[in-house]
Task: structure prediction
Amino acid sequence: MVTYRPVKQIFILILALIMGMSLSFWLIPSKMDYEWNVWRDRTLEWETKDYEINGIYTFDGVKATTEVGDWSEGNSQFNLTSVVSDDSTFQFQVFFEDEKIFIDSGGKWLQNDINSRFVEELTPLYHPFEWIREILNEADKVERIKDGDKTTFRAIFDSFEEFDFRGTLLSKQHKTTLIVIEKNGVIQSVTFEARPIRPDSISILDRYPEQMSYKIDFTEIESAQFVLPKEAYESELME
Amino acid sequence: MQWLRIIHLIHGVFFIFMLLSGLCLYIVATRTWFNQIGFPLVQFHLLTACFYCGLVLYSLYRIGRYLLKKPPVKKFNFILNLLFFLMWMASGLLMYFQAYLLAEVRNVAVVIHDWTTFLFLPWVLTHTIGHLFNVSLPWPAWWKRRAALPPIIEENMLERRDFLKLFSLAFLFLLIGSWFKWLTPILNVTEAENKRRGYFRIYNVTNDFPRYEDREWSLTIDGLINKKESIGYTDLLHLPSTTIIDNFHCVTGWSVRNVEMKGVLLKDLFDAYGLEAKGKFVTAYSGDEVYFDSFLTTQLIDEEALLVYEMDGEFLKPAQGYPCRLYHPDMYGYKSVKWVDRLEFSGERKKGYWQQSGGYDLNGYL
Result:
């Protein structure tokens, strides 16, 4: 007499394993994916508010620019101080109004349509939150640390797909991080610390940093100040 | 069972028409040939599909009841057909109403529609050959007739408790898998954001396409404009370029995400050559001498339309429209005239190729 073992027992087990596992790997995000999405969604929330901002850009440990002003999604204005040498600085004002950029340099006004060149030179002032979203697309690791009211978002970058930060091409990285601190749902600061590896495409004669950092502090305000004089609208076109 | 025979026959005829027209739409050469002879293949496929769906839905209940006491092979054929019918119908409806859906959903619908057809082909061939040549396959008796089941089959017949066991275990594995996935220190989502997704299905309206050698191509800009201009390929490459990463959408449902395109904005070209359009409309002609489409002048000048010459970092391939194609970021692919060699400005709007022969929307906005 032949005894049959029901094959369906094993078949059901294997089928359930395939169904369950494939569904979970397809539908469920990893914790990092989830944190990344939370961070990205927070940027959409942050950008709806107006802020007073204070930024410092350092290049190889030396302060390169400071930026103070008001930011809102429509109109923003900043006072920029660029360090020229040990004892001299160059100051100018930048205004973004919708699709226009205006610059006041020593009382001389210039204007133009906002294009990628102007935006890149003043990254990430024009739109810090869009910039965060853009750079997050290059992140290799993401984490979110909650400590009471304070939340720290941290992204680590091992390499970029040719990402430009204020004229510096970022490719492979030693250790580069982006840290955003939020308190009670309000963004407090954005800190970008980069330790880039010089790309082969950069000539040995060209200046390239071993380290650079950019930090913006945000203070939420009722409404961003924005006053453009009449001569700004009548000014010459900026090259 | 005369009624059933007639239904089976009509079903077979509709199915064959639908299958053949679907395959002809899928294969570039046949699709293009039907375009050339002016046969409305898409409409034919849709009409046949409607009749097919109507027939299946009409006869479903009676056939289901008829099969209750029939051998397993008949039930298997019925369930298999029903399963594929539902997948074709659902994916077909999603493709038809794709304008209202997300690109991801549209792409999945197109893939399901294609693959269900390919997977069904072996059964169609076997079944058709069996009927046409009276071939009887050596199936075991219990499969073909209502005979006693052998023990190995009987004990493996699926019962309600087996389905309960299957879904309970699947749910358990879903939880275990989710836990593993959650803990995996991998950031997949950034790759998904940046990754090129999908692939192009290249459609032409002619069986052959223009092949330009040694940069002999030029773009003529004429009609109601302040001056006629002819721009060569090298001239075009010397103009200020713009690179965009955009999602390319076809009106038939498929999309390709994150396509990098480099070219010259029409606005920049007009600035560089001091051109001023006097006509409210513009017709873009393809170098294949058949295809053309029309736009409002403002759509090309003010809405960042590009004359694209590079795609994903490489010059266009001949089939992609080398040396230059028109591209409007907010319009469907049929507005992206390949091998564009003439822009004619006019006071009246012409209906484009697909507006005349396919009823496509004149503006073609996404």
Observations:
- Chain B touches chain A at residues 151-152, 155-156, 158, 162, 165-178, 180-190, 193-194 (CB under 8 Å).
